[in-house]
Amino acid sequence: MAKQELIRLQKVLSQCGIASRRKSEELIQRGAVKVNGRVASLGDKVDPTKDRITVHNKKITYSAKPKHRYIMLNKPRGFVTTMSDEHGRKCVADLVSNVGERVYPVGRLDRESEGMLLLTNDGDFANTVMHPKKNIYKVYRVTVRPAVDDEQIAAIETGVEIDGRKTAPAQVRVITRQEGRVVLEIVLHEGRNREIRKMCEKLGLEVARLKRTAIGQVKMGMLKQGDWRDLTEEEVKKLSANPNPSKNQRAF
Description:
It contains six helices and 17 strands. By secondary structure, the protein is of the alpha+beta class. Strands 7, 8, 9, 10, 13, 14, 15, 16 and 17 form a nine-stranded mixed sheet that branches. Helix 1 packs across helix 2. The longest helix has 9 residues. The mean pLDDT is 89.
């Protein structure tokens, strides 16, 4: 009988739907993961069919061929993009508790933002969607106050310096203009923390509402707020193959 090949611990955690590989590495570094009762270290390799692996002292179950799930959630405001929260805040985990598989978020939306959020237990898929080199763009509908001028739009399109570094070029178009408010569609090609909110703040714009409507060629459509659905095979292929525009091409 062939000997089981040792696998990096973070890959096993990802395959079991605990977290993405990057987040699994953070769990290991924080000492939350044990192998056979010993606190694990980053770089450890395991035999998941024999070794006893725990996360926060809970044993994980390994399957060589896990059932992968790919979920789209319409996240409401007021929910944090984590599977648990030490401060007792509402988590997206509460909204997908009936999925039947343990899934985790692919990227994040901040607490006051809403819209399309992907969750999965497929670590390779999560890495593909999040990796900057894959250039999977994200589309947002943003309501700003009180108004926006051509200079502010041009600044967002060419890049705004936030946190000591200029943002990547974005795409912007005006959807509606009303007294005291403008609705924009903004396409980002990078995933920096609270990027749109920080750009708008730097430009003197108040963000009244921020909603993600698409990731790459996959759109949220009419999915109700707080509801989730499985991605179709075609949608998974679109995100995995990533036939998306380059940063210099228009997404709309």
